[in-house]
Amino acid sequence: MSTKPNFTERKYLVVLIFVTSLFLMWGVSMTLGDVLNRHFQNVLHITKSRSALVQFSIFGAYFVMGIPAGMFMKRFGYKSGVLMGLILYSIGAFLFIPAANAESFTFFRIALFVLACGMATLETVAHPFIASLGDQRTSDQRINFSQAFNGVGGVIGPVIGSYFILKAGQEHSNDLVSVKHLYIIIGAVIAVVALCFSFLKVPPVTDPHAVSDDSYANDSLVNVTQIKVSTGKRSSHFIFAAITQLFNVAAQGGTWAFFINYGHDIMHFSDENAGYYFSLSMVMMIVGRFAGTYLMRFIKPYKLLATFAFCNIIMCVIVAQGFGWPSFVALLFINFFFSIMFPTIFSLGIKDMGADTQFASSLIVMGVVGGGLFPYLMGLIANHNVATAYYLPIICYLVIFAFGFMYPRLNKKAV
């Protein structure tokens, strides 16, 4: 008789909590980058399209570190991978000190790149790590649950950035001193977390994606040679997932990069208030992730993904009209519907990849480079009209919709 799989096992609970906290950490840094985007426009006097190079530095690191992080994880294990990610994260934060002293946009981009290499390593490791902490049939739920705390970090980031960096009238609102002080604190916190994690005992785990013996494998061991990436047909869902993730993060990068600009240019908010609304949009993402995790108990993940992608196509059309509050509310709701996309695409992509799971994880994370390329294109349009720039993400959501709609034919075992 088949029994309903548990969310996780008791022996993994402490590790699950700790690894979930990593999602929160990179959520803070990711959205702080969007605050820095606007602050650099004001302080370093750069255009919207050039400020989008902040996102290129962050997301470009994911492309560079995707495969190396996966190889490191496969050679040395999940714990070592997490420690390497935290160390790079901390070093990047401390590099903000000389960057602020030099008032150099290029130096800031280097610091952000190193920090993001740490984030990319953590993300490459954390997703399959979370997936390994229980039954594969509940991996979608675990990853979406943990990703919800990425949303919590996403809320905290803009609040911190708006108060300490964008707040008008404070002593360092027009310079880079507050940026330097903030990242010194971040670097110190991450260093302490790395030290604590080094003492944490991680129970032995058997990645259920590497050796499957559940319903996904028709109650038999998966023949690893049949699901190699090189076979093509059996890994078509993974290939489409990697492409979809690139477009997914492209939409995220562009939407977030110019959210504060939209609030300032279209709604006439101060930068600080626009930053607080950006934080509210992160709350919408948290609600969406918890709602999505719950709905996946009744709705197939790929069906929910396609539905949410279609909803965001509608939201983007409304945002692009620049209708004031109706368009701004639609902008907030983009994050609600975006909420489940990254973790769901990731989880669907690595299903039944067997011994290729870690390699597949690395390649899907490399798709995050889309978040570095797309904001620049949106920035070229936003230099003239930031609302019109929101037509571009529609392309991305069409790709996501197609992936969700076609998934049953791509991976028949997992539906």
Automatic annotation (TrEMBL):
<feature type="transmembrane region" description="Helical">
    <location>
        <begin position="362"/>
        <end position="382"/>
    </location>
</feature>
<feature type="transmembrane region" description="Helical">
    <location>
        <begin position="304"/>
        <end position="323"/>
    </location>
</feature>
<keyword id="KW-0472">Membrane</keyword>
<dbReference type="InterPro" id="IPR020846">
    <property type="entry name" value="MFS_dom"/>
</dbReference>
<keyword id="KW-1003">Cell membrane</keyword>
<feature type="transmembrane region" description="Helical">
    <location>
        <begin position="80"/>
        <end position="100"/>
    </location>
</feature>
<feature type="transmembrane region" description="Helical">
    <location>
        <begin position="388"/>
        <end position="407"/>
    </location>
</feature>
<feature type="domain" description="Major facilitator superfamily (MFS) profile">
    <location>
        <begin position="15"/>
        <end position="411"/>
    </location>
</feature>
<feature type="transmembrane region" description="Helical">
    <location>
        <begin position="329"/>
        <end position="350"/>
    </location>
</feature>
<feature type="transmembrane region" description="Helical">
    <location>
        <begin position="147"/>
        <end position="166"/>
    </location>
</feature>
<dbReference type="InterPro" id="IPR005275">
    <property type="entry name" value="Lfuc_symporter_FucP"/>
</dbReference>
<dbReference type="Pfam" id="PF07690">
    <property type="entry name" value="MFS_1"/>
</dbReference>
<feature type="transmembrane region" description="Helical">
    <location>
        <begin position="52"/>
        <end position="73"/>
    </location>
</feature>
<keyword id="KW-1133">Transmembrane helix</keyword>
<dbReference type="InterPro" id="IPR011701">
    <property type="entry name" value="MFS"/>
</dbReference>
<dbReference type="InterPro" id="IPR036259">
    <property type="entry name" value="MFS_trans_sf"/>
</dbReference>
<feature type="transmembrane region" description="Helical">
    <location>
        <begin position="181"/>
        <end position="200"/>
    </location>
</feature>
<dbReference type="InterPro" id="IPR050375">
    <property type="entry name" value="MFS_TsgA-like"/>
</dbReference>
<feature type="transmembrane region" description="Helical">
    <location>
        <begin position="238"/>
        <end position="262"/>
    </location>
</feature>
<keyword id="KW-0812">Transmembrane</keyword>
<feature type="transmembrane region" description="Helical">
    <location>
        <begin position="274"/>
        <end position="292"/>
    </location>
</feature>
<feature type="transmembrane region" description="Helical">
    <location>
        <begin position="12"/>
        <end position="32"/>
    </location>
</feature>
<feature type="transmembrane region" description="Helical">
    <location>
        <begin position="106"/>
        <end position="126"/>
    </location>
</feature>
<protein>
    <submittedName>
        <fullName>L-fucose:H+ symporter permease</fullName>
    </submittedName>
</protein>
